[in-house]
Write a structure and sequence with these properties.
This is EDD domain protein, DegV family. Pfam families: DegV (PF02645). It comes from Corynebacterium pollutisoli. GO terms for molecular function: lipid binding. Keywords: Lipid-binding. This protein is α/β, with parallel strands linked by helices. The chain has two domains: 132 residues, 3-Layer(aba) Sandwich (Rossmann fold); 132 residues, Hypothetical Protein Tm841, Chain: A,domain 3 (2-Layer Sandwich), CATH 3.30.1180. 40% of the residues lie in helices and 25% in strands. The protein has ten helices and twelve strands. The strands form three sheets. A six-stranded mixed sheet has the order 9-8-7-12-10-11, sandwiched between helices. Strands 2-1-5-6 form a four-stranded parallel sheet, sandwiched between helices. Strand 5, helix 3 and strand 6 form a beta-alpha-beta unit. Helix 2 packs across helix 3 and helix 4 packs antiparallel against helix 5. The longest helix is centred in the C-terminal third of the chain and has 16 residues. The protein is globular, with a radius of gyration of 18 Å.
């Protein structure tokens, strides 16, 4: 495969997909805290990424390496990737600013890897990955807010509001930032709203949906059933456990939904 695709573990790609498409996944770091009752995460260093990119170039990536990492607003990994890419000859390693995380990034890596396996050049793989990201959206249902509050990923005001109102918040990831898009009293109402968000955005056309859950297999299966009943014909749906570096921040019971649509948001005509 001329072009090599590299991502990190936050993309949440299943092992069989990684193997089938020849994608390289570099693991982010999860560390237990000093008290032993929690965990934290750390981004990849430029040295780690230089080594990863170099290995892929040595393994036949004559056309270069395409790197897709979680949003720069969420981790230092992106800046480390840019520093690492600068070590190599110009354009040999291209780093995409994904602005996202989870299976939205995973889906972009999958589409790029599929084209790479068919002989596409680096620019073509880059363009399809960027296009896929532009047609994607990610939402996260939080069963509780303590973990994400402690991680600093939401504002104190948002956390206080959710706590006082005893709500189950729905967050979106837009431009690499977490934004509150819904507050519901129950998980069932939150799932109903998630389904509405996907269907509204799909605009009657097929969609790829990936559900990721943090120790909430039954809840994820329930949401999967709700979506399966209403998704447009030709859609595809998968459910899998949430990757560890994301689970640390979202807390037990969290359920994420990443979707790739047929069109960009600006192309959807309001009903």
């Amino acid at each position: 495969m001329p072009v090599r695709i590299v991502t990190d573990s936050s993309a949440g790609l299943p092992a069989d997909v990684v193997e089938e498409l020849g994608i390289t996944v570099v693991d982010l770091h999860v560390m237990a805290d000093g008290e032993g009752d929690g965990a934290s995460t750390a981004g990849l260093s430029s040295l780690e990424l230089v080594a990863a990119y170099a290995r892929q170039l040595e393994r036949g990536g004559d056309e270069g390496v395409l790197a897709l990492h979680l949003a720069k607003e969420l981790s230092s990994t992106w800046s480390a990737a840019v520093q690492a890419a600068a070590i190599f000859p110009e354009e040999q390693v291209r780093v995409i600013e994904t602005g996202s995380v989870g299976m939205a990034v995973g889906a972009a890596a999958m589409t790029a890897a599929k084209l790479a396996s068919e002989g596409a050049d680096l620019q073509t793989c880059h363009d399809i990955a960027v296009d896929t990201l532009g047609r994607s959206a990610t939402w996260v249902y939080l069963h509780g807010i303590e973990d994400i509050r402690r991680s600093g990923r939401i504002s104190t005001g948002t956390a206080l509001s959710a706590t006082l109102l005893a709500t189950k918040p729905i967050m979106s990831i837009a431009g690499g930032r977490l934004e509150l898009v819904g507050k519901t009293r129950t998980q069932e109402k939150a799932f109903t709203r998630l389904v509405e968000l996907v269907i509204e955005r799909a605009d009657g056309r097929p969609v790829f949906v990936a559900i990721q859950h943090n120790d909430a297999a039954d809840s994820a299966a329930h949401l999967e059933g709700m979506l399966d009943e209403v998704l447009p014909a030709g859609s595809s749906l998968m459910s899998l456990p949430m990757e560890a570096t994301l689970a640390v921040h979202t807390g037990v019971g969290a359920v994420g939904v990443s979707a790739v649509f047929m069109s960009h948001p600006e192309d959807v005509v309001p009903s």
